[in-house]
Amino acid sequence: MESNPSSVAPPWKYDVFLSFRGADVRHNFLGHLYDALDQNDIETFIDSKLGAGGEISRDLLEKIEQSNVSIVIFSRNYADSPWCLEELEKILECRQTLQQMVIPVFYHVEPTHVRELSNSYGDALAELRKKISPDKVETWKRVLIEVADLEGWHFDDSK
Questions:
Q1: Catalytic one among 2, 62, 65, 87?
Q2: 53 to each of 34, 45, 50, 69, 91, how far by Cα in Å?
Q3: How many of the other CB atoms lie within 10 Å of CB of 117?
């Protein structure tokens, strides 16, 4: 019996891809999340797994394509990073083309700030607009809003 190629699931190399702004979460929340996933045998890609000497942009984009789920950790400075926004754009593309699951986590940031592009998100995009084409910034605004509208988790242990 032949299988229909269009019904074959993509060959995921990773269960989860983690998208995050390193300075905000690397040494606290991210470590705990990664350890919990690892302890449950969930194959998780984190940028420290990139080999030295590789072209980071292409390697990261390939890792996103090879992942079944992307967890996007929106933190205060996430939108300051063009790299994070490029990742987010690719993640949304994979959600649409590969049916990748995307889970937003709002870490010490209000979900409405991301959805409405206000506070640190609005400030970051205004700064990026000075350095990067307005069309690119508009694309990033759209993907931020779209991903922030997905069902996710709000984590704020400061309250």
A1: 87
A2: 24, 18, 9, 26, 24
A3: 18
Q: Using the CB atoms, write b or e for 135-146: b if 16+ within 10 Å.
A: ebbebbbebbee
Retrieve residue 72's tokens: 């996007």
Burial class of 10 by CB neighbour count within 10 A (0 to 12, 13 to 18, 19+): middle
Domain ranges of the chain: 12-155
Please state whether the predicted TM-score (pTM) of the whole model is above 0.90: no
- Span 80-87, average pLDDT: 93
Sheet of strand 67-74, all strands in order from the earlier edge strand to the far edge: 44-45, 14-19, 67-74, 101-107, 153-155
Q: Each residue of 116-150: pLDDT tens digit? A: 999 999 999 999 999 999 999 999 999 999 999 99
* Integer Cα distance of 128 and 122 in angstroms: 10
Give me the residues paired with residue 72 across strands: 19, 104
Residue found by looking up tokens 């797994």 in the block: 49
- Per the annotation, the verdict on 93 as an active-site residue is no
Domain 12-155 adopts which CATH fold?
Rossmann fold (3.40.50)
- CA-CA-CA-CA torsion for 9, 139, 17, 26, nearest 10 degrees? 180
